[in-house]
């Protein structure tokens, strides 16, 4: 078992239960686990530097837990900037994302995943919750494992087609996206979880994920929660992702999406709901009562006009004790895998919209991007904070960068000033995956070249063009 000494770190943001910030600290990592944390001089007396396989010098650096992205689409990463930016959620999903996803083949998908993981490591993310492969969970599991990332993935599933198939949906696309019914979808999910969960010594987990909302039946929503519980994993899907979806749910079922999930017994502590922008006050209690997690995606809200600041109830969810974590979502939806942006938006959006400076302080934004993300992923027993006994998923920022010169309060500087490119070293599961901004687990040049090549090919295969409408009446 390799060991690692991280010595003389200027500042450690631990994100422990009391948000301790430590100065002049050293950290001892045995294998994948944080074995000891203490004042640099004490650790220096207790351990001998030559006994360590690896030593990272933390002087002039800030160390913190790696960021946890709780809503991501690894398979969407080659689509950056492909769709128009004048669309709301439903036409974005139904008219553009569906044909695009169907064209991500088994050759392109691993490159999409590698490119996404490369960007995550370089911007300080060490763990993700991915919606899952378009075809085979094994593709996502294996490609992500090779990159050194920690994460949860799965296999995309839906079972409800719209009443009428639009002309820009090909037959292959329809075949690709929809199972005949919930039982068939659940059988495929069970198979993928049983085959792939706890891959790479448990660094990659596999969940029973579904698309959620209109393209999924009540049986599939409930079935995914039940299956996840039975198999000891989680499930995640999109819900209450736009006001239009909520109004459609009201018309069809007489209630908004989260109330409907409660009615059909689909809520639970192992469920992570992505977006949840359209929520009524009384539905906050339903989420709190069932300890159901919410992944807020500020970047997507900005681009797809979801109305997080206008109608969103994220501060109220936080007040009610709901675990709200942060996600970057897909590359077409938000355009960035950078969790620093999500922290920055989250710490400012509600203050400004409600003219209330008490809302979502920097300290909370950091928790949402770390320990609360870990809690959403049912992984907070092992990751999300820098504490003895936890896995060593750590990032180190260079305090000599412009954004940190000079600075006073470190947590505030991290959220309002820092840039993700300040992340200098990254450690996942005790392994150094980036040193001096050089990713050690991947060939960056090769991945970029392949990503560009397959991005062009996939866009061509998708058949997407300006003829495809930017509004929709599907599933109305
Ligand atoms: Zn999404």
TrEMBL record:
Is this entry keyworded Cell wall biogenesis/degradation? no
Query: Which key words are in the record?
Result: Hydrolase
What Gene3D superfamilies does its record include?
Metal-dependent hydrolases, Urease, subunit C, domain 1
- Residue ranges of every copy of the Amidohydrolase-related domain listed in the record: 63-433
Q: Which domain of life is it from?
A: Archaea
Compositional bias of kind Polar residues: 459-476
A single Gene Ontology molecular function, please?
hydrolase activity, acting on carbon-nitrogen (but not peptide) bonds
Q: Which InterPro entries does the protein's record reference? A: Amidohydro-rel, Metal-dep_hydrolase_composite, Metal_Hydrolase, MTA/SAH_deaminase
Disordered: region residues: 456-476
Official protein name in the record: Amidohydrolase
């Amino acid at each position: 078992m390799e060991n690692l000494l991280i010595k003389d770190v200027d500042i450690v943001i631990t994100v422990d239960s009391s948000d301790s910030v430590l100065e002049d600290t050293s950290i001892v990592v045995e294998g994948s686990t944080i074995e000891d944390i203490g004042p640099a001089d004490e650790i220096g007396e207790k351990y001998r530097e030559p006994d360590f396989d690896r030593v990272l010098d933390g002087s002039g650096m800030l160390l913190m837990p790696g960021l946890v992205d709780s809503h991501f689409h690894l398979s969407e990463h080659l689509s950056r900037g492909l769709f128009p930016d004048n669309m709301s959620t439903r036409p974005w999903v139904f008219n553009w994302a569906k044909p695009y996803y169907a064209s991500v083949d088994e050759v392109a998908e691993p490159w999409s995943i590698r490119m996404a993981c490369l960007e995550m490591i370089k911007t300080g993310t060490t763990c993700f919750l991915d919606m899952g492969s378009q075809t085979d969970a094994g593709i996502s599991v294996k490609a992500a494992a090779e990159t050194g990332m920690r994460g949860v993935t799965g296999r995309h599933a839906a079972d409800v087609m719209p009443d009428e198939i639009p002309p820009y949906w090909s037959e292959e696309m329809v075949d690709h996206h929809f199972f005949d019914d919930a039982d068939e979808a659940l059988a495929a999910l069970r198979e993928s979880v049983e085959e792939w969960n706890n891959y790479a010594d448990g660094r990659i987990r596999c969940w029973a994920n579904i698309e959620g909302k209109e393209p999924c039946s009540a049986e599939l929503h409930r079935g995914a929660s039940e299956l996840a519980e039975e198999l000891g994993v989680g499930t995640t899907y999109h819900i209450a992702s736009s006001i239009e979806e909520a109004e459609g749910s009201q018309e069809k079922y007489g209630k908004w999406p989260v109330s409907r999930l409660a009615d059909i017994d689909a809520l639970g502590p192992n469920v992570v709901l992505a977006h949840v922008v359209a929520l009524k006050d009384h539905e906050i209690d339903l989420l709190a009562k069932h300890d159901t997690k919410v992944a807020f995606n500020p970047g997507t809200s900005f681009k797809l006009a979801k109305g997080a600041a206008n109608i969103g109830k994220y501060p109220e969810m936080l007040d009610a004790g709901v675990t709200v974590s942060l996600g970057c979502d897909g590359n077409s939806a938000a355009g960035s895998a950078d969790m620093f942006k999500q922290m920055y938006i989250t710490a400012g959006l509600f203050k400004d919209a409600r003219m209330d400076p008490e809302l979502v302080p920097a300290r909370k934004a950091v928790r949402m991007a770390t320990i609360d993300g870990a809690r959403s992923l049912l992984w907070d027993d092992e990751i999300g904070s820098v504490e003895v006994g936890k896995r060593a998923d750590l990032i180190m920022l260079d305090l000599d960068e412009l954004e940190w010169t000079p600075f006073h309060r470190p947590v505030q500087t991290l959220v309002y000033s820092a840039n993700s490119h300040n992340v200098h070293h990254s450690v996942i599961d005790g392994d150094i995956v980036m040193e001096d901004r050089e990713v050690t687990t991947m060939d960056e040049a090769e991945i970029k070249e392949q990503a560009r090549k397959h991005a062009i090919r996939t866009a061509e295969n998708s058949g997407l063009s300006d003829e495809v409408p930017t509004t929709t009446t599907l599933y109305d």
